Amino acid sequence: MSLTWPIVGAVLFGALLHASWNALVKSSTDKAMDTALIHLLGSLVAIPIIVFTGWPPAAAWPYIAASATVHIGYYIALTKAYKHGDLGLTYPLMRGTAPLLVALSAAFTLGEHLSPFAWAGVAGICCGVLSLGLSRHALDSRRAVGFALINAVIIAVYTIVDALGARASVAAGGTVGQYIVALFVLDGWPFALIVLARRSGAVVWPYARARWPVALGGALASFGSYGIALWAMTRAPVALVAALRETSVLFAALLGTFFLKEAFTVRRAMGTAAIVAGVMALRLG
Questions:
Q1: The pTM is what?
Q2: How far apart are CA 186 and CA 91, in angstroms?
Q3: Span 139-183, pLDDT tens digits
Q4: How far apart are the C-alpha atoms of 113 and 110, rounded to whole Å?
Q5: 20 to 30 A Cα–Cα from 191, which one of 67, 68, 110, 216?
Q6: Domain that holds residue 235
Q7: Considering its fold, how many domains does the chain have in total?
Q8: How far is CA 228 from CA 83, 155, 158, 188, 261, in A?
């Protein structure tokens, strides 16, 4: 397995999609509702697709069940982080520490060992991503930082679980597409039901009617982003794909600057340069 330029290009496009739906959640007035709506619509979109792809083999189902469970915690921590902090702070923290955790655990769970150049790339991306988020403002947003760091651990867990699951699906004669679609069919419902149970119909339905076109765009972006990542993880080392995927922070910083009116400082420019250098080191590694 190696990280070729076509895989790099695909993962970077997936990173843009990932940043886009996170910016949608951050810009909403009800972040829990938007997160629930995006992933519920993602499940509904996946249902007709399963008719064409078919269900994954039995070997994949334990991983799908584990991933769907872990994702509930991810959505809860995500909405809490966005409730208490800016996109430019919380998103880099969540995404910047997860790749290092994935790289450290991949050697034990996947038997993948990185070259020194690849480790330098992972470290460069993580440092760059963290520099985009860490600031004095972080000291005033301890709850946001706490939820973001909790989510980093959760992201690392479901990344490893889904990488193992996608590979198990392929090894058992299935496809990555079957795993992805089955995961999305199941994934959106638990958190959505938790959110809906805490709100009255008088609140839910008017909000859903007003936001569903935007949420559908977010659902398609989420579907495409994670589908690309899992496909890439069957063709390249998981730690490298996980690190490369976090270049989404660059896109999030730009989206936050242009659409959410968040400042793009010299520190963020330096972080951007570190991420770009890290991407090059990953490819060379």
A1: 0.84
A2: 25
A3: 567 788 888 889 989 999 999 999 999 999 999 999 999 999 999
A4: 9
A5: 110
A6: 5-284
A7: 1
A8: 28, 16, 15, 18, 29
